[in-house]
Fold this protein.
Amino acid sequence: MSPLMTLVNEQGALHGGLPAWWPNPGVAQEYPLCRLGWGAPTAQVSSLELGALSYISYSTSCYDGNSSVSVLLNQSFFPAPELIQCNDYSKIPRWIAVRFRGKSENDEDTIVVAVKGTSTVADGYLDTDLFTTIKVLQLFSFMAPVLMVVPKDMIVWLIGTLKVMAVGHGSAYEQKNLE
């Protein structure tokens, strides 16, 4: 394994290298985020572990198969965290909840919730539905300062009411989650 960023020459950086004025420029500098931990003091989770959980949340199965969430947790962590909750891949939003146990029985645990991002057509429709309305209001603000004059609570109510009226009985993703 080699460092991602290294010093190119003594005069300064060329093509993405580290500048010569960095402390100890002959050695790649560690990124501070790599040393941080989150959660209970005896059950800390690192940024790399959070990244792994984010990746695992995209698995299409919770418990069945070689690439299920439970199997990936066992293969990725030691000791393996406990899978508390895992909803169906097609649900919006898809999320998993994982408990990292403290070092002893009396120690506090750390619970992490990982939410899957956009990966299906339904997710794409939801993203479009969420952001299009706000973007239209922002563009309309160039002609009339709607977002600055109208109270936020009224804008939220207006958007919700217009969406229900446009679809009939709520949006498609709301109906799908109610079924």
User: Anything to note?
Assistant: The longest strand covers residues 95-100. The first helix runs from residue 47 to 56. The chain has three domains: 1-30, 35-115, 121-178. The beta strands are 37-38, 45-46, 82-86, 95-100, 110-115.
